Amino acid sequence: MLLEANHVSFRYGTEPWLFRHVDFKIKTGEIVGLVGPSGSGKTTFGRLLAGYETPHEGSITLDGSPVPSNRYHPIQLVFQHPEKAVNPRWKMRKIVNEGWEPDEALLEKLGIMQEWLERWPNELSGGELQRFCVARALGTNTRFLIADEMTTMLDAITQAQIWHAVLEIAEKRNMGVLVISHDHHLIHRLCTRIIEFKDLV
Ligand SMILES: Nc1ncnc2c1ncn2[C@@H]1O[C@H](COP(=O)(O)OP(=O)(O)OP(=O)(O)O)[C@@H](O)[C@H]1O
């Protein structure tokens, strides 16, 4: 399966164009790194790929067709701040089962303790909460994961544990992963291909 940005342009409101005519391709099975200076538009581009924003010009396609948005989205985004990605009024069990129901083995692989399922989001650490966001994004219908600074605020051990689990699942399911990060060490360790955002725009 091929996820493509075709001549995509985007601006916020009446601000100047953030980028214009961006072409990008990622295939399932690929782990691609996206790097570039702060403020250059990487997060915005990730949001466009995952359907959170609509391009002003161009299109995002999956195998040449528009990405279906009326069911579980095949392109899932996990970003840096898990506390902003969950409903504070839902318990963790409801949050993690929002789009699909991950089994115990997957939760265990991500280091999620069963007792955390009965807690509220504000009763977990950032790292614990992020594990839930990753589990929620790894539905069996996920074809591409956009990991935008996904493990930036986590300690090295937690970061390694989460990436180990994600890469194992990605390989088993032939998922594509786009890793957006300022951590060059992490990018070089994980990715099969690395792209400078400035080379796309
Ligand atoms: N909702 C918004 N409204 C207006 N401008 C925005 C909005 N979100 C982001 N921007 C601006 O768009 C530009 C690109 O932001 P973006 O977060 O995509 O960059 P980035 O490359 O991911 O940065 P970083 O590496 O610091 O995360 C920035 O100048 C930012 O201030």
UniProtKB/TrEMBL annotation:
ABC transporter domain span: 3-201
PROSITE patterns tied to this protein: ABC_TRANSPORTER_1, ABC_TRANSPORTER_2
Pfam families xrefs: ABC_tran
Coiled coil start-end: none
UniProt keyword annotation of Mitochondrion present: no
Keywords associated with the record: ATP-binding, Nucleotide-binding, Transport
MF annotations from Gene Ontology: ATP binding
Family: Belongs to the ABC transporter superfamily.
Protein's recorded name: Peptide/nickel transport system ATP-binding protein
Organism of origin: Aquibacillus albus
